[in-house]
Structures are given as C-alpha cells and as structure tokens.
Amino acid sequence: MAKTSVLFVCMGNICRSPSAEAVFNSIIRERGVSDQFDVDSAGTIGYHAGDLADSRMRSAASRRGIELTSRARQIVRADLDNFDYVVAMDKDNLFHIHSMDPDGRYESKIKLLTDYHPDKEVTEVPDPYYGGPDGFETVLDILEVSCEKFLEAIEETRAG
C-alpha cells in the first residue's frame, strides 16, 4: 500500500502545525501504522524557517509525552502536488492555501483540521503564541481529538 502523506499548516510553523504533526505521529505510532504515513508541517509565512517549535509549545507537549522535533519551513506550491492531505489549523491559513490553488485543482485534498472535531463549536485551532500557558494546553486538547478523528476518516477512505 502506498504511503499517505499529510502536511499540517499554520502561520509560522512553530506552534500549532508542528504540534499537529507530532500528535498525529504519536497516534499513528500507538496504532502501529506509522509506516503507512509521511507526515510534515509548514507555515504560510517563512519568518521562522529553520527554527524549532516555540519552547512553550514544546514544554506543553513534552508533559504529554509528545516530542516536537521538526524545524519550521514555509509551504510551497509543490506541497500541493506532493501531499495527499494539506490540513490547515484555522480559516486564515486555509484561505492562504486555497489562494495557492486558484484553479481549484487540489480542492479535495485541502482540509480544515477542526472539521474532524466532534464538537462543532470548535471551528479552529487557536494560535497560542501571544497568550498564556493555558493556550498551549487548549491547542493540544483540540489537536489530540481532531487528529484522532482525522486518522479515522483517512482509514475509512482507504477501506472504502
């Protein structure tokens, strides 16, 4: 079976999307299916390119046994070709990704992660960068549920 490739995207690729990458990797490892996936993350801006995830985000994730090791990078148009799923953390970044696809060629692979969250009042993964420590915990809470449900949706599609 071909690997399924997933790219998680936020603005700077130092809080939400590297956390989504790490949470998703943790889930697929626990399920014993990590060999079936290629997972990465990127930002819609390149300001933090090459940086590790925000230290506050790394600390919050570490307390849950999740290690954030990726380095920030900016999404490029080729990512739309190369990934099966391009998953935004919020509507602004979703809009940015769609703007990279003016002819709608990749429409079916561009997703909003919280569309998979069972609580329909959770519509975005909020950016915790300018907030306090609780924001990082909230992000991880949302990611854990959303990534689990996203994986279930992928598995249903594969079985389909």
Commentary on this structure:
By secondary structure, the chain is an alpha/beta fold. It has a single domain (4-159), classed as Response regulator (Rossmann fold, 3-Layer(aba) Sandwich). 41% of the residues lie in helices and 13% in strands. It is built from five helices and four strands, in the order βαβααβαβα. The chain has helices spanning 16-31, 55-62, 77-82, 91-99, 133-159, and strands at residues 4-10, 37-43, 85-88, 110-112. The protein has a four-stranded parallel β-sheet, with helices on both faces. Strand 1, helix 1 and strand 2 (37-43) form a beta-alpha-beta unit. The relative contact order is 0.20. The model has no long low-confidence stretch (mean pLDDT 96).
Radius of gyration: 14 Å
Helicity range of the residues?
A: 40-55%
Q: How many β-strand runs?
A: 4
Structural class per helix/strand content?
Answer: alpha/beta
Shape type: globular
Level-2 CATH architecture: 3-Layer(aba) Sandwich
State the assembly state of the protein chains. single chain
Low-pLDDT ranges = none
The portion of residues forming beta strands comes to: 5-15%
Give the distance, in angstroms, between the N- and C-terminal Cα atoms: 14 Å
The spatial strand order of the largest sheet comes to 2-1-3-4
Mean pLDDT, as a whole number? 96
Number of helices: 5
